[in-house]
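Case study B.
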Amino acid sequence: MTAPPETLCRHCLLPVGRRGFARTVNGESCQFCCYGCCIAHQVKSGSGDASEAAWFLVRLGVGSFLSMNIMLFSLLVYSGAFTGADRRVLPTIHLLLWGLATPAVLILGEPFVRETWSQVRRGRLSSSALIVLGTLAAYTYSTLAVFRLGGHLYFDTASMVLMLFTLGRYLEAAGRARASRDLAPLLAAESESATVVEGAEEHRRPVREVRAGMLIRVKPGERIPVDGLIVEGRSHTDDSVINGESRQSAKAVGGSVLAGSINLDGPLLIRSSGSGDESRWAQICRSVRDALRQSSRTQRIADRVGGAFVPVVLALAGMTLAYWAQRLPLDQAMLVALSVLVVACPCAVGLAAPMAHSLGIGQLARHGCLVRSPGALEALALTRLIAFDKTGTLTTGWPHLVDLASDGVGGDEVLARLAGLERHSEHGLARAIAFAARARGLVPIATDDVRIVPGRGLRGVVHGELVAAGSATLMRDLGWQLPPALVERADVMATSGHSVVLIGWSEKACVGRARAALSFDDTPLPEARATIDALRGLGLRVMLLTGDNAGAAARVAATVGVDDWQAGLLPQAKRIALDQCRPRHGAVAMVGDGLNDGPGLAWADVGIAVGSATDLARETADLVLPPGGLWLLPWVVGRARAVRSTILTNLAWAFGYNLVALTCAVLGLLQPILAAAVMAGSSLLVVLNSLRLERLPEPCYPGVAALPAASQPECELSPGEQGRSTTLGLGRSWSPALHADRSVGNALTR
Amino acid sequence: MTYYALLFIAGFAGSFHCIGMCGGFACALGGDPRGAGATSVRHALYNTGRLTTYCFVGGLAGGLGQAIYASLGAKSQLGVPVLSESLGAGQRGLAVVAGLLMIIMALQFFGFRGLRRVTTGFGGSTLVLSLRSLLSRHGHAAPLAFGVLNGFLPCPLVYAMVAQAASTVDVLSGCLTMAAFGLGTFPTMLAMGGLGRLLAPRWRQRGVRLAGSFILALGLVTLGRGVVPMAAGHNLHHSLHHIWHFA
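Model:
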């Protein structure tokens, strides 16, 4: 390996791979995947005094000057301008051509020779070896012809082949860099610097040195380097890098801002809320970089074939020379062999997959969707069945109170006691209870000595009397009486698919009894149905796999339009269910919230997490959608398919083209200059074909242009909550509590 | 000779258009600290580079025209096409294409922006920016290289002339066409380098109009060469048939 396989090219951000080499640009050591990228990077990074960049352009300019003159004179010779009386100037013209060609070959060929040499020293033949061999042969032959005054000259061939390849590689690299434009902001997190305000002074510092509590100044148009709270100023931000939403959000003092957002129109002073390399942006950056460093199976196969190509081509060129030398003059036979060498350069093959991958990954990432490896993208394209988890995936994960049945007490008292008790809980339902109590204007009753009974509920003490809330089992464990009417109501609630909580308390030192049953509902997401329909429109089968009870599963399945569902599945059972689907449907994908269904996500061919609350680095899913990003799924599937078909057309094109061109060259039907142009054209076509991915439609929220507030129920809570709800991941941090809630529901059903 | 004089004038008129971009380069190229002689060499090298590119592209276009023409089975006609009396069918077709291209380009000078994207297309700005870094370098290689690369920068005027060169259906004529045009741009460009300052925007605007008018006229003449039957035995119906065939 030239370089560690995980290195990315400095210019086009693709993995460096086999062709890679290092070069010092502007005093900085850079890794490039090819000579073209090295050129393009130097051209791009060239500022006024960057001598390296300028030196390349001088080289290219002077090389072009020489080879254009060679070509011009050669064209004139071919077109018969020096016939008849002018014939005696021909030797002079030949000498002139030699004088022009020698520096041209030296100037333009040097990088190719250097690349070849560095590969040969590692015991490998690179494709540039083909070019070097071909052009050197043409140049040497022509030089001999000039000085022994005989034969045809091929200086134009030698210099033009070199020039076309230089140009082709430059254009290819420019195209690839354009493809990675989407990726640049996602990979910038680590190299970004922040303006840190310390007293009266301001310093530029690398983001990784920023700690919590530091004051950071962000000018309009700049990217916000760290997560934080606004201390001063007012502006709008564009958070699309983080959550994929392309709308602007207004920000004022006290509001939170996210690293990676662009500060649009006002200067801001923010107080960092965490160190720079812990922001979600930095995590996204690391995740995307990791994804780019991996190669898919398709790419590995293509690379292997491309690598084996070079010696084969050398042998083929040798055989071609031997064959034609018996039938044609040596110079013409050599020209045919030269065409073979030039046309077989397998540049486009190595380019076929990585460019489509980086385009795909970049575009998904720009909408907040993270892909862990290019292979996952290809697997998703092949997927024919998508299994969904229910809670937090197809539903909001935010339960709300729907029914309250009491036995001899007022509803308000029930809620006030329950709210007092649940105030000490992180339980998913606690929020729903607090919300319901607040809606009725109730003050929670102060409760002491609150304890959690794992898997059962809560108990506490009010004015010396015991109060408990949770499952029927909890009531029985306490030895409390369960009124039959209440149990019946609770059963009805549970079978209709709701989560049920019983509450009871003791009075006047008597044994307590259950006094009320409350049911909570987790509403399906408004976009769930449209998403499922869209997926079905893409020819995918959809099924629901949930650990929740059958009633809840059936109700949600009916609402969102899934006919195939399995309920009451433990994580292990989900894996079995996925395995059962594989023989019939091939690759299967599993969508979950990334917390409760980690094993399922890891087991599926493609695990998709919607809004991951965990550290992205520890995420097991292959694909992470942004919080509230379920609606993006059909678009993501479409993208994955587009990427895969682009790779296949690229490979078909690159191999097909090479094969046809090679056949033409072996048969002597292709001029070397034309062959060089054809090869540059082939690489460009692969680049352009991949760039077509850029023109696919952007994701569109089903039925609505912008993301409506309805999909974010937390906004209804309170102004304080709203402020926090913009912080990522917070919404899902309630999910573990919700998981416990299911066991309450299940216990009641049983 | 009249033909090349015409192209020279086209280059001269057109060079008022050049003041915008290339004139800026010429100014930036500036003087050589070693004196007036060295400065002249610097600018001569720059313009030689530019001219080489033009000649090369012209020769290539001419050769391409020749190849197309030859593949149509007609006999190539060397010499000065614009005023020659009898034209072959292939040459007519090319003349029509070239004429139309020139007219489209000319209209652009008057503010029709149809081809703007084509002319300022692929990666131009990055290249232009980095090209600027060449300007401050000393030595003889940099201005030459700069001139060569400058010649390839997108320019509607050059495109129009290349179309013209292709319609000559001959390498040498194509090369000379572009050479005449390129030499035509010399006075202004050298003056820009020497004067070291830009013309007032008002004058530049007039220059662009002038250039546009001239290219338009030349385009119409070229088009007319293809369409209007000059030789006996060619009626309009025939010509239209040829246009249909080759356009």
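The longest strand of chain A covers residues 513-521. The remaining cases will be described in the next quarterly update.
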